[in-house]
Design a protein that fits this description.
alpha/beta, Trna Endonuclease, Chain: A, domain 1, 2 domains, Restriction endonuclease
Length: about 325
């Protein structure tokens, strides 16, 4: 990721604390504390005694040249640098809430298409302005959860219990997939449901090799089973079979490349459980070539992925966006 030299120089001065302006916004760091700063960022950089700002600028350039999770996401080490720089514990007397420091930081980051913000956990994160994706360390969704994350999981569970299918798509899946690095997330036939062809959403993912994979998503609000007679709130996998077949056989138009493309993978998402019998039944109905294109994601997967991201739990089952306001 290439940042302008001016931006890197300004960030280096913030880390060093080389400002004479009042009120003082950033902590002054001598050689020893610069080494300590980058240790706190989980790196091995140690100041070599050279000019501090010049050395920090070189370190930032090296960090930004590292691997990126996605084209819209800076290297994870850089995200940790920003989080450490904006630690609420380093607030100065003239800027107790760090609002001045945040404004100063965003004046530089906006030049590169990013903005910094404080989340509910009082940690500072980076957001890509154009796509809205939030840069965060890739967290293991299967690790032990903190008390705050356990509470967040309970809140999301309560939301999913009451949410409509549209609310599941618009307020949970759209921001979640955007956070995970997917692009061009589009609700197919959102207004009249007449043009879905088995899809509720389609989106694409850009591999590090710049190859593009397209995904179609079929979302169901409740449990997905394979019983002969499903309950009133459950969906039967036979319906999903028809929709998955249509999804994999129907082209979508990607306006960014001006071409029609086939869906590479079908992702079946349920706000409830997807039973093992339902997965097996659908796999047996599809031929071998298409069977490998089907992926499943149920409530447990949604909860695990959502809880470890900086995303906020939606406030209610009613969508916060109108039909024409969905941020594709």
């Amino acid at each position: 990721m290439d940042f302008k030299r001016r931006t890197i120089s300004e960030l280096a001065r913030m880390i060093c604390g080389d400002f004479s302006d009042e009120p003082k916004l950033f902590r002054y760091r001598s050689s020893h504390y610069l080494t300590e700063f980058f240790q706190d960022c989980d790196t091995d950089y140690a100041h070599d005694g050279s000019t501090r700002a010049h050395w920090v600028a070189g370190v930032l350039t090296e960090i930004l040249s590292g691997p990126q999770p996605s084209p819209q996401t800076p290297p994870q080490v850089f995200s940790r640098v920003i989080r450490t720089l904006m630690d609420p514990g380093d607030a100065m007397d003239g800027d107790p809430g760090r609002t001045g420091a945040l404004t100063h930081l965003n004046q530089s980051l906006s030049r590169e298409g990013f903005e910094a913000f404080y989340a509910e956990d009082q940690q500072c994160y980076l957001r890509h302005i154009a796509s809205g994706s939030v840069a965060a360390d890739v967290a293991n969704p299967h690790r032990p959860l903190s008390a705050a994350e356990v509470e967040k999981r309970k809140d999301l569970t309560a939301f999913l219990d009451a949410a409509s299918e549209d609310a599941l798509i618009e307020e949970v899946l759209l921001p979640l997939f955007r956070q995970l690095g997917f692009q061009r997330i589009t609700a197919a036939g959102h207004k009249d449901k007449a043009l879905e062809y088995g899809k509720d959403l389609w989106m694409r993912y850009v591999l590090p090799t710049q190859h593009v994979i397209y995904f179609g998503i079929q979302a169901k609000r409740d449990k997905l089973d394979a019983s002969g007679m499903s309950g009133a709130k459950n969906a039967n996998v036979a319906e999903i079979h028809n929709q998955a077949t249509m999804m994999l056989g129907h082209e979508i138009f990607d306006p960014e490349i001006g071409k029609r493309v086939l869906v590479d993978h079908a992702l079946i998402v349920a706000g409830g459980e997807i039973t093992k019998a339902a997965r097996n039944w659908l796999g047996n109905k599809l031929d071998a070539s298409r069977r490998s294109q089907i992926m499943f994601m149920d409530r447990e997967d949604i909860l695990n992925l959502f809880v470890v991201t900086p995303l906020k739990v939606p406030g209610g089952a009613t969508s916060k966006w109108d039909d024409d306001d969905i941020p594709f």
